[in-house]
Design brief:
The complex is a heterodimer. Chain A has 18 helices and 24 strands. Chain A is an alpha/beta fold. Chain A folds into 3 domains: about 240 residues, Rossmann fold (3-Layer(aba) Sandwich), CATH 3.40.50; about 190 residues, 3-Layer(aba) Sandwich (Rossmann fold); about 70 residues, no CATH class. Chain A has a 6-stranded mixed beta sheet, with helices on both faces. Chain A has a 6-stranded mixed beta sheet with strand order 18-21-22-15-23-24, with helices on both faces. Chain A has a 4-stranded antiparallel beta sheet with strand order 2-1-4-5, covered by helices on one side. In chain B, the strands form 2 sheets. A two-stranded antiparallel sheet of chain B has the order 1-2. Chain B is mainly α. Classes of the chains: A alpha/beta, B mainly alpha.
């Protein structure tokens, strides 16, 4: 493997100057200056929405900045798209793998830039030789003719990296590359990263796992609210440094009124274990115990892949439990369908509104009444007035802004669509309501309304269990925070006394061990 | 916000964008034309044929054409349920043949070799048996799709062959003639299904009317109908709302099979004979009627009115061209062009609708930027 002369290492290969990105009324990035250095790993820290991803999209040509310039090798650069970027040696590995499982390793590596002979025929031999070479370089003993679908997740990640390298990447951006990997696979990835940097590749690395990210970092930058707030070299960065720069934002002002005394236990989980639907050998949720009382709001806080969504979907009846028991008001569930659970008073507001929450071809009213339709049946048919009255009352109650109940659901904004989904669930008269990332993809105003609604329903005696990956939400709109990591409860915190640091440490963004280590230093 | 919108009492539900008035100045001619395109096409067809042929608007001719429409319309109504759910049923043509053959074999006497007797069931038994066999074909389609996850196109393509094969096997490839039954056996009356008239109108047309009314009622007024639309529009969201998606899927194929069997009975009765080849390519006309009527093959969109108009367009077009003496080859070509044109116009309408909804959503967002106080 070639090594790069020391003089070249650490020189700036790519830089961003005064980058600002504005989406509608929000300023995702504000006057950011950022350098990527040859042969080094630059780690980006920051909470969700701090601007990391937006910057990476700009660097890789997915988005163009509203103002500011990019430079590559000291020359100004305007990227027209991802293809343009990859031709210039800038590659990005996304959080979700983007491989075709039905094609071989070679086919995937050369997808979209096949080597051709005479302009017509794919040059299989050259492609195979090149991918074998890449696999060797990545120290992965894989036949390039293997189907990608037959590979383990970690190996697929290697293919993704090989694809980036096949385009002679000089700048390699990795967005949460370890979220799907096991501990061993992370080690492999890290040794690979070190080899790549030794060969002079510049790496930009994003991860929520502070511990892992610090292990691999040569430099670090911290983002907060769209601005780059700190830059540090390897020997001056530690957990404390990162957290103190990531936090430091005034608490959001969406604090709704919460009860402090609760009723009976409404939802009770004992030893709940759920297999990962996409990989049955892995447990998405492992031995989960939890009680939620009437009037209480419990927050499930955790990173992506912690098992929050799997837990909530399983409670709603979509995925079966592997082990353990669930009780609703003392009644033990045993394989009831979604509809039966809804009639027992357990309902879910799913994470992905477009995919799981709404029927886009139906009106606002039809979406609202979908889960409670049987309540309006009079004899053989749906009582029109009964349905309309219930829907219109609910629309007013959750404050959906719509011209009428007959308007198309797609004519509403994201926040109002989310209110329709919540209204639909409330129309089933639930006693326990589950919400998965209820504020995802909606603006601040609508967020406050939605959490206001949640608090109001809790005051009316509902037990509320909601999942979030945003620290400020976890702290301000819940009575209790259950921190999840890798399918287990790692900590239970009282929201009133918990701090941002507590949450981050507990969720695995940093470990306690590390925090105490950094305190000792 | 669009300043040209007019305010209506509907805006009482918050400060959202006011609904466009149906009668106001700003009625959008283009989208109105697009929405009523199938109906407009039908009227244009009628006018053209009436001008070109004296006998087109003749009452007897209209009745005959409508009877032909009825065969396809009944099939298409069943197909509508399947397509609304986002599936397809290619087996209906074969089911038409199979149900006719089942009726034929029962009316001619069902030989039970084991007991060495021949059974002559009464007509109502024959009808129920035929409808049952058709529904069973649909049930098998449904089970293949829901239980074994076979893609609807493949499952029903397979059943297209199997049902046709069954019809040929039962009849040994021959046609059952003389389905009239005989007085001494007490199995007369089958010919009334397709050949009879009520108030001077052929029974086939009455059956179409009844089926259309029932289908419209089921789709519009019952939870099952709403579930068909919901599961076709977004299966995952419907399932998470407690809609029994698998049951709905199974039922829509059974409905389609039932409708196909009905058509088989009507046509066999009309022809007074049952041929195993009956109904070949009928599935394509049924799909065409549904599509011309504005249904989306992806599911969730379509209605009975559209299907009826689609069936009339196809039927009047074929019969009208025959009346004018246009060659069969041209008839087929023109039919194909009409189908493609219908779908292109449908795409245009959807585009107009989408951009309108996107504009509304943007306006909705703006008005939502000023958040209401937290309720409660």
């Amino acid at each position: 493997m070639s090594t790069v002369a020391g003089t070249e290492r650490d020189s700036v290969v790519m830089s961003a100057r005064g980058i600002t990105k504005i989406y509608g009324p929000t300023r995702a990035l504000n006057e950011v200056d950022f350098d990527v250095r040859r042969g080094a790993v630059t780690v980006l820290f920051g909470e969700n929405g701090a601007g990391k991803s937006t910057l990476m999209k700009i660097l890789s040509g997915v988005e163009t900045p509203t103002s500011g310039v990019l430079e590559l090798d000291g020359e100004q650069l305007e990227l027209t798209g991802t293809v343009d970027a990859s031709e210039r040696g800038i590659a990005i590995i996304h959080q979700e793998l983007s491989l075709c499982p039905n094609l071989t390793i070679t086919d995937n590596i050369f997808m979209g830039r096949e080597l051709v002979r005479g302009g017509i025929v794919v040059d299989d031999r050259a492609e195979a030789a090149r991918s074998r070479e890449l696999m060797e370089r990545l120290a992965e003993d894989l036949d390039p003719k293997t189907l990608v679908g037959d590979l383990r997740l970690g190996q697929q990640q290697v293919v993704e990296i090989a694809r980036a390298l096949a385009g002679e990447a000089r700048v390699l951006i990795m967005d949460e590359p370890t979220s799907a990997l096991s501990g061993n696979e992370v080690e492999v990835l890290f040794s690979l990263i070190r080899e790549l940097t030794a060969a002079g590749v510049a790496i930009v690395y994003i991860s929520h796992h502070l511990e892992e990210a610090l292990e691999i970092a040569d430099h670090a930058v911290v983002f907060r609210d769209g601005a780059l707030v700190a830059t540090g070299e390897r020997d001056e960065i530690d957990i404390d440094w990162v957290i103190s720069h990531m936090v430091g934002r005034a608490a959001d002002d969406l604090v709704p009124d919460l009860l402090d005394t609760f009723g009976e236990v409404a939802l009770s989980l004992r030893g709940v274990t759920i297999a990962d639907p996409s990989n049955p050998a892995r447990l998405a949720v492992n031995g989960f115990d939890l009680d939620v009382r009437e009037g209480e709001i419990v927050c499930l806080y955790g990173l992506m892949g912690a098992g929050r969504t799997e837990l909530l979907e399983s409670l709603a009846g979509r995925v079966p439990l592997q082990q353990g028991s669930v009780e609703i008001h003392g009644h033990t569930l045993a394989g009831e369908s979604v509809a039966e659970r809804i009639s027992m008073g357990l309902a879910l507001v799913p994470e992905d509104r477009q995919r799981d929450g709404l029927v886009q071809t139906m009106s606002v009213g039809e979406n609202s009444s979908l889960a409670s339709l049987l309540k309006y049946v009079r004899g053989l048919w749906i009582g029109k007035r009964a349905e309309r009255d219930a829907v219109e009352q609910e629309i007013a109650d959750v404050r959906v802004k719509t011209s009428s109940a007959d308007a198309s659901i797609t004519s509403l904004s994201g926040g109002n669509q989310q209110k329709v989904v919540i209204g639909k669930v409330l129309l089933t008269k639930p006693r326990v309501i589950l919400l998965d990332e209820p504020s995802r993809g909606i603006d601040v105003g609508a967020k406050a309304e939605i959490f206001g609604l949640m608090a109001r329903e809790a005051r009316r005696g509902l037990a509320v269990l909601f999942a979030t990956s945003e620290v400020s939400e976890a702290l301000t709109v819940s009575n209790r925070i259950v921190v999840m990591s890798k399918g287990r409860i790692v900590r239970v915190l009282e929201s009133a006394s918990a701090t941002r640091e507590d949450l981050m440490v507990a969720s695995g963004e940093a470990t306690e061990d590390e925090l105490s280590r950094s305190e000792d230093e | 916000m669009n300043s040209s919108t007019t305010t209506t009492p509907d805006s009482k539900l918050g400060g959202g964008p006011p609904k466009k008035s149906r009668f106001g100045r700003d009625v959008d001619i283009l989208s109105l034309l697009l929405e009523g395109r199938a109906f407009i096409a039908l009227i244009v067809l009628v006018i053209i044929f009436a001008l070109l042929s004296d006998s087109f608007l003749n009452f007897a001719n209209l009745v005959t054409m409508t009877k032909h429409v009825a065969y396809n319309a009944i099939l298409a109504l069943g197909m509508l349920f399947v397509i609304l759910k986002g599936g397809i049923d290619l087996s209906v043509g074969s089911t038409v043949g199979l149900s006719g053959v089942v009726a034929g074999t029962l009316l001619q006497g069902w030989q039970l070799n084991l007991f060495d007797i021949v059974l002559y069931p009464q007509v109502w038994v024959v009808v129920i048996a035929s409808l049952g066999v058709g529904t069973l074909v649909g049930f098998v389609n449904g089970v293949l799709v829901t239980r074994f996850n076979v893609a609807p196109f493949i499952a029903t393509l397979g059943m297209l062959y199997i049902a046709r094969g069954a019809a040929l096997l039962i009849s040994s490839g021959t046609t059952y003639p003389r389905l009239g039954g005989s007085e001494e056996l007490g199995n007369q009356g089958f010919l009334l299904i397709g050949g009879g008239r009520i108030l001077g109108i052929p029974t086939a047309i009455w059956i179409m009317v009844v089926f259309a009314i029932v289908a419209a009622f089921v789709l519009k007024k019952t939870p099952f109908g709403r579930w068909v639309y919901a599961a076709g529009g977004n299966e995952r969201a419907a399932a998470l709302s407690g809609v029994p998606v698998q049951k709905v899927k199974l039922r829509v194929y059974m409905i389609s099979g039932f409708c196909a069997a009905t058509t088989g009975l009507i046509i066999s009765s009309e022809l007074t004979s049952a041929a195993p080849q009956l109904g070949e390519t009928f599935e394509l006309n049924a799909i065409a009627a549904v599509v011309i009527g504005g249904a989306a093959l992806t599911g969730g969109r379509g209605n009975v009115r559209g299907v009826l108009i689609g069936a009339f367009v196809i039927g009047f077009l074929s019969d009208g061209l025959v009346l004018l003496g246009v060659s069969t080859f041209w008839q087929i070509t023109i039919k194909g062009a009409v189908i493609i044109l219908a779908v292109m116009l449908d795409q245009a309408q959807q585009r107009v609708k989408r951009s309108k909804n996107a504009a509304l959503a943007a306006a909705n967002k703006q008005s939502a930027d000023d958040p209401a106080p937290i309720p409660g």
